[in-house]
Structures are given as structure tokens and as C-alpha cells.
Amino acid sequence: MNAAKHPKRKDALEQAFDRLENLLPPKAARVLRWLHHPSSRWVRIPLGVVFIAASFFWFLPVLGLHMLPIGLLLIAQDVPFLRIPMGHLMLALLDGFDKLKRWWKKRRNKTRR
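-> C-alpha cells emitted (113 positions)
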């Protein structure tokens, strides 16, 4: 079963974009939504390359390895063979982030008692 036969079923990359959009503040979510739109391809690809290149400067304060999955996510929308692995990777990272948030809330609640 694939998304073409079942239009309501989203592939992993689409799910990752949706979940990431829900995590972001409204302004950043709006930018991500715009970047995800097909007409933004000519901005999305160079921006993805910039994010990937910036990840190689992980030792600098603002730049870091966290930019690599973001750059790959942006490029994966236009490179078919990256869609499935990047979708699954981003969903795994977002699941890990959710677990970390739950752990942090539980930890904070224990220290407040």
C-alpha cells in the first residue's frame, strides 16, 4: 500500500513535516509550511545545502550537527530516494524528543515535591 493508492495515508516525510510544524512556534511553523510548499523548491534546495554545509562547522557556537537533519529534511522533499529514510529518521528523532520532554516533565515534577 502506498500513498498514491490511498490519498489519506501520508508518507513518513509528510508526517515528519507535520509533527515538526506542530512543535515550532507559529512564525517558524509558517516559514516551514512555506518551505514545504512545492513552489518554494528554488529556495528549499539551496537552503538545505547551506544547512548541511553549516553542520560541518559543529564546533562553532551557533552552528552544529543539529543542522544536518534539517538540511537533509529540506532536500529530501525533492530527492525521491531520500524521502523514505529521511522521513523515518525524522520521525525517530521526533519520537526521541517527545520521550525527552516527558522525562524532563517527570523529573521537574519530582523535584518540586
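Residues 1-8 have pLDDT under 50 and may be disordered.
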